[in-house]
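Appendix C reproduces, verbatim, an entry submitted by the partner laboratory led by Prof. M.T., so that reviewers can inspect both the input and the predicted structure.
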Amino acid sequence: VNQPTASSISATICAGAVYNFNGTPLTTAGTYSDTLINAAGCDSIITLTLNVNQPTASSISATICAGAVYDFNGTPLTNAGTYSDTLVNAAGCDSIITLTLNVNQPTASSISATICAGAVYNFNGTPLTSAGTYSDTLVNAAGCDSIITLTLNVTPVLQSSQQASICAGNSFNFNGMMLTTAGTYRDTLQNTAGCDSLIITLTLNVNAVTNGNISASICQGQTYPFNNLQLTSTGTYRDTLVNVNGCDSILTLTLTVNPVPAKPVITRNGNDLSSSASTGNQWYLVGTGAIAGATGQVYTPNQANGGRFYVISTVNGCSSPSSDTLDFIGTGLAEQNFLNWQYFPNPASQFVNVRLELVKADQIRIDITDLSGRIVRSVYEGERTPGLLNLEVPTADLSQGMYLIRLSGKNEQRSGRLLIQR
């Protein structure tokens, strides 16, 4: 009697697969049996334990920077997206992996900064001193490049020079400093950023106040013009002017007013003519002018010629009025026609009297001229018989100064000086 046989087997498939159990397709886990014929021709019962393994699935995420490559199981990826791949798990079934790939972009930023000339700017560890554009690459929070661009400005220090002048005793305000002494000064100004922006160099000149002294003298009755003042008295006067540097120029004037000598009187003693003035005499001959060397108190005319004489006394530059004329008839002038030729007052103001005594009839002319001989007033012209001629000539319209009175006859001429003064 042959015994039937029995055997057990186990098998594993993946979900979705089919297990052929002696012609029977199996897809579900379980225990199955089948009766076959063994070698002895008896039943051979086979028991099958079938296991069905499930496929696995997983998800992963990854991040790369733009420009980088992600290796996904041999596949190079550069773009963000969702990717999947099927592998074999430990059970020999499919293992589906889903990848979410993120691509982070690099960041860029710009900054600007300003430093003072001579200062140092620390740019991520790099010391910078010159103006310009600089860049550096860092790592941002996503782990990618972060490019920083720096615009660096350097505030320059400017130089300025100026000159100024003040007068001694004054002060110059140099940015709050009151300067009184000549010299070179410097000051540094700062901008709103606290940098030195301008160095000012000042050259300061201090001009001195000048002093001047002058002395002058005038004659009594005259005036001395002193800076819009008409001075008539002896004294010391001061005035403050402005010199070429714009500073005070103190001018001190010592003025002396000298008296005008009295009008001399001529007396005759024989052939000698004497002046009442003891000093400063100058003798004149009418029609000729000053007599050279005749400066003494006594003058003796040439007895042969004679003439009409007068004298003026000058002391300290001040001249007296002309004396009255005195006729000295010399031995050679017996035929003289003009006698007692006089004009007064001298100096004159509003008028002058002219007196003439003629010995014989004559055609005469009397004029007042300036010192160059130009006639400024015709006094008289005509035929005169012997005798006395008295004329009152107005002089109020004549300017102040020295003039000549000129007397002309047919054979004789005389002239004398006339001072118009008011």
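The two ends are 196 Å apart (CA to CA). Additional entries are available on request from the coordinating office.
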